[in-house]
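Appendix B, record 7
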Amino acid sequence: MSDILWTGSEVAAACNGRTAGDAAWTVTGVSIDSRTIMPGDLFIPLKGPHFDGHAFVGQALAQGAAGAVVADIPAGFEHDARLIKVDDTMVALQDLGRMGRVRATGKVLAVTGSVGKTGTKEALKVALESQGATFATAGSLNNHWGVPLSLARFPAGSLFGVFELGMNHAGEIGPLSRMVRPDIAIITTVEAVHIEFFASVEHIADAKAEIFEGMDPAGTAILPRDNPHYARLLAAARTQGLTRVLSFGMAEGADGRLLSYAPHADHGVASARIDGVEVTYTLPLPGLHHAVNSLAVLLAVRAAGGDVAVAARSLAGLAPIKGRGQRRSIDVPGGRFTLIDESYNASPVSVAASAGVLGQAMPGPGGRRIAVLGDMRELGDHAPALHVGLVEPVVSAGTDLVFCCGPNMRHLFDALPAEKRGAHAPDSTTLAPLVTAAIRAGDAVMVKGSAGSRMALVVEALKAMDHGRQDNNPQGNTAGQAGQPRD
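Structure tokens (predicted):
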């Protein structure tokens, strides 16, 4: 596969742009963030309410960008053949993404769902790489600019392309699906995430089902059989004209069915029947939810014409993603403790799942299981009840101590048994020193919260306790200059 993604003339044609001369340059990457420019990249500066990427066009070119698509030509670059002039760079990015999809020759897969999208996308990437050249969305680039950016980066000769579609309002996934036009679509689950913006969970199911809008009737939908909204999703797929619908889960009628699952402290072993093929495989990510989502992955490989047994074996190579289950052993006086970083985001179902993972962790001598939880956001009037509802999964997981921050987590904290209350603070900045002061050797510590709770600050404070750690700089979650991706 060629390293060249686009020629300058192809970019100009796709974006209906104008050049000051012969665009005889080639592009090996596409970026909307001047901070990430690599030599050979195409830079597409976007405009937002608080920024304008056009201010960094000169910097991007100086850093080695092969060219740039601009709505405003910077002073001194009026005759520069590296610039392609368009009316609107966001529209240009979308046009380039659509052209990326048009020229694709391989199978295109899309993933959405209330939780588990990024983990499933990463597992799909690993599984499909065992079958042939595979491209996948980087990180969580799953919104109105992340999806076209990913499509613009999609090498035309890939055998498989995997794209993540996210939303927090109705009507957002449909346009993304029509852009991606997936051959195979997975909905991981439907839960009360972003319920602040929906009248009911049923409406969330309808919004997730928008993923079918860009599909040809010959496409394949893969749905969660154990979810209470399965019938609603199935009806939506049929209404869209899809004739091939597969299901996954623990129910007897599932096409991808989990036959058994053996949990361990840092991995799990699953046995499953995938469309008639029985496989046993290891997942380096502990937790039943990962095993269930792996069924969807293997069904997708089957639907794409791949070898399920080979794909199942390849899942042993999965690596935890930062903020989504990544583990680290931290050296402290007297020994070490285990940090489980789940700080990227949170919802009722994902916090419960993470509590289960903490419950499988094995503390060292004298150690405890400690949960550090930040507010779950976008739950509206349901927030108090949904936070209190976490008491049962947190306690039943054998959690010894719970630290919380934020006004919503106050409801959980107050409902906990007194002996399990560590401390509550208004925000993560205030909570971090309370947590680090309480940690001792042998502990297993899980940190989780919605992105807006900024629980990564707590994670970095815990990492900074490591005697062997050289860098103590906090790392935040950034998504370039155009805002955050959708959940």
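Remarks on this record: Residues 326-463 form a domain with the Protein-Tyrosine Phosphatase; Chain A fold (CATH 3.90.190.20). The chain has three domains: 6-96, 104-317, 326-463.
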